[in-house]
Design a protein that fits this description.
The chain has 96 residues and is mainly α. Helices cover 82% and strands 0% of the residues.
């Protein structure tokens, strides 16, 4: 393999993952159910890696599953209120 290609792709991946971490952290703060969705995705990827020798899923299936988990968690967070928001609203009403 080409050494410069391997090095440059690793550097780009490191910078991309670092930026992605901060984006995901902000999204988890905005959508309270997204943390559970990320947990589900990580478990799915781990199980897929464990059983990769016996089970092969097409990339499109994996992508659809990951995007649907993100969509359901964000929609669920948007529809339901965060439990902490109820406490803050109650305190704001009592202060008035």
């Amino acid at each position: 393999p080409n050494q410069s290609l391997a090095f440059s792709s690793s550097v780009i991946a490191m910078f991309g993952l670092r930026a992605m971490f901060f984006i995901i952290e902000d999204l988890v703060d905005m959508f309270h159910l997204l943390a559970y969705g990320l947990c589900l995705i990580l478990i799915f990827i781990g199980v897929q890696l464990i059983f990769a020798r016996w089970l092969h899923l097409p990339a499109s299936t994996v992508c659809i599953l990951i995007m649907s988990v993100f969509t359901v968690c964000i929609a669920g967070s948007w529809v339901t209120k965060k439990p902490e928001d109820d406490k803050e609203n109650d305190e704001a009403v009592e202060a008035k």
